[in-house]
Specification:
heterodimer; A: 13 helices; B: 6-stranded mixed sheet; 4-stranded antiparallel sheet; transmembrane helix (chain A); membrane (chain A)
Chain lengths: 299, 269
């Protein structure tokens, strides 16, 4: 039995290099120490919300101020670009006339109706794939194809079929939402925990019971996470529908203003649309949080 | 206290399983045996363990007993009635708790009763006192995500219990828990077992766990797997933690361990 010291000597006397020697040699070759005692960069540092908000407001003020001044002093052609003061004027006129609200309501209701219809039909379609593999494998490629297709290209056809009324706008909004949610639901239904299905089977549960108690609830988060994307698409569908053929709505107002060179009105339409999309987005976000908490118990 | 349906006799008679395995798409599938015919017996109120390394066919046997797969040969009998290949006769629990995250603990534990079509009010009336009795009374309305791993497994076991079948299959139910919690759960299972007198088939690869809990241990080995030894555990009941330090306990452990080690050496030779 040798002592540890003797072992060390024996190993280092060996022509082959000992494991500890390898590390020692490596250490000798390593460049001068730079990694030690370094302070961690500001990964976890928080921003100051007051500063951020002040900067945001400042940015808007600079853009609007620059735009206004540029237009007044001839650096920006107000015929093409209009100017904040003209847009403001346009706004006060529109608010006074009152029909503007009806246009906003029209666009919003066709977008929301399309959003709801698309979500329901898409979810039903996606979930139906769970019932039969043959059916799913037959139909799914076509749904993927429809999803990939720029559905905006269908707009003229949709307007021909559904007319210039609100139906065509709803149809376009629905089409945009439907395909995405169908694929979301199908993907969600595929990821259902196999062991939970086995457990349900061992209990002797029927297919319908498994579908209702396991497949539908575990697919819902997929649908819900798609909502914030699809609300924007629904709005886009409604606007495009109005572009193609309509006599009401924000999209119609924008196209009409554009063709009569009323650029201030175009901008006003765009800004109102942006505001509308933020309102819808925040609304869906709140819905998403509530449903999400319902599903997971809000961890 | 004695609630629910007491145990039945579960008899696994010469159950074996072969799959058609596709090794190469050009040649026809090869019939591969994964489980040699095995016999397992669990009498009313008995807990029997199946011990063996992974891949020895434990889980296959388990699925067959649960009725999720049909055996290639042999039959499953409960109190003499042939139930081979049919589900709904046994409660079933895995290492994963498989609690539905969107349901409260209360709604999770009555799932089995719900599937059986028991009225919700009756199911709740049965579940509430059990949750209270086993330390989950304050968590009725909680979601699984809010509970610790041990509590979730407790809820999963209660769900299995409330399915109210005479036979329960537990596949490494405590495998994912830390050592401390696992021991607590094992002691708890012994209490539950003493109260309800179910027939339990328990799969594990933890020898300590098997010896502590079992009336009988089936040691499985090999590919295809088979039962290589059957050991009656004749330790006094009711058992508690103190039994784990007795010489008899150590002897049983050594007996199981030596069989597995010997088998391992046979393979490596």
């Amino acid at each position: 039995m040798t002592t540890p010291t003797e072992t060390d000597q024996r190993v280092s006397a060996d022509p082959r290099i000992s494991p500890t020697q390898i590390l020692q040699d490596l250490e000798a070759k390593a460049p001068e120490e730079r990694t030690r005692g370094r302070r961690v960069a500001a990964e976890g540092r928080r921003t100051n919300p007051v500063v951020v908000n002040a900067l945001r407001i400042g940015l808007v003020a600079i853009v609007i101020g620059g735009w206004e001044l540029g237009a007044r002093f001839g650096y920006i052609n107000p015929f093409f670009w209009s100017s904040p003061s003209r847009i403001w004027e346009s706004l006060t006129q529109q608010v006074a006339s009152g029909s503007f609200y009806m246009d906003i309501l029209y666009t919003m209701s066709s977008a929301v109706t399309g959003f709801v219809l698309g979500t329901l039909i898409g979810t039903a379609l996606g979930l139906s794939f769970w019932w039969s593999k043959t059916y799913a494998e037959t139909v799914e490629p076509y749904v993927v194809m429809f999803e990939a297709l720029p559905k905006i290209a269908l707009a003229p056809l949709v307007v021909l079929v559904f007319g210039v009324g609100i139906e065509s706008k709803i149809a376009l909004a629905t089409a945009l939402v439907l395909a995405i949610q169908a694929l979301n639901a199908a993907a969600g239904a595929k990821t259902v925990d196999k062991d939970i299905i086995r457990m349900m089977n061992s209990l002797g549960a029927s297919r319908m019971k498994i579908f209702r108690s396991v497949v539908v609830p575990s697919t819902l988060p997929w649908i819900i996470s798609g909502l914030r994307v699809t609300i924007g698409l629904a709005l886009a569908g409604a606007i495009v529908g109005e572009f193609i053929g309509s006599n009401r709505g924000l999209g119609y107002r924008i196209v009409y203003a554009g063709s009569t060179y009323d650029i201030a009105m175009v901008w006003l339409g765009v800004f109102v649309l942006a505001l509308l999309s933020i309102v819808l987005y925040v609304g869906v976000g709140a819905l998403e949080r509530r449903l999400g908490n319902q599903l997971t118990g809000g961890k | 206290m004695s609630v629910g349906i007491q145990g039945s006799t579960l008899e696994v008679k010469g159950v074996g399983k072969s799959y058609e395995v596709v090794r190469d798409s050009k040649v026809p599938p090869v019939l591969t045996e994964v489980l040699q015919p095995v016999d397992v017996l669990a009498r009313p109120g008995e807990l029997v363990s199946i011990v063996g390394p992974s891949g020895c066919g434990k889980s296959t046997l388990f699925s067959i007993v649960a009725g999720l797969e049909a055996p290639s040969v042999g039959t499953i009998e409960i109190d003499g009635a042939d139930v081979t290949g049919t589900t709904g006769h046994v409660g079933y629990m895995l290492q994963k708790d498989m609690l539905l995250p969107w349901r409260s603990i209360l709604d999770n534990v009555i799932l089995g009763l719900e599937v059986r079509g028991v009225a919700r009010a009756d199911a709740l009336a049965a579940a509430r006192p059990l949750l209270k009795e086993y330390g989950l009374g304050d968590y009725e309305a909680a979601r699984p995500a809010q509970l610790s791993g041990g509590m979730r497994q407790r809820a999963a076991l209660l769900r299995t219990l409330l399915f109210n079948r005479p036979i329960m299959l537990l596949d490494e139910p405590f495998g994912a828990l830390d050592a401390q919690t696992r021991l607590q759960m094992q002691i708890w299972l012994l209490e539950v077992q003493a109260t309800f007198m179910k027939s339990i088939v328990f799969v594990t690869h933890d020898i300590d766990e098997a010896v502590l809990l079992s009336d009988r241990i089936y040691v499985m080995w090999g590919r295809p797997g088979s039962v290589v030894q059957e050991i009656e555990i004749d330790l006094p009941k009711p058992r508690g933690v103190e039994v784990t330090t007795t010489p008899a306990f150590a002897e049983y452990k050594e007996q199981v361990r030596s069989i597995l080690m010997r088998k391992k050496e046979e393979v490596s030779l």
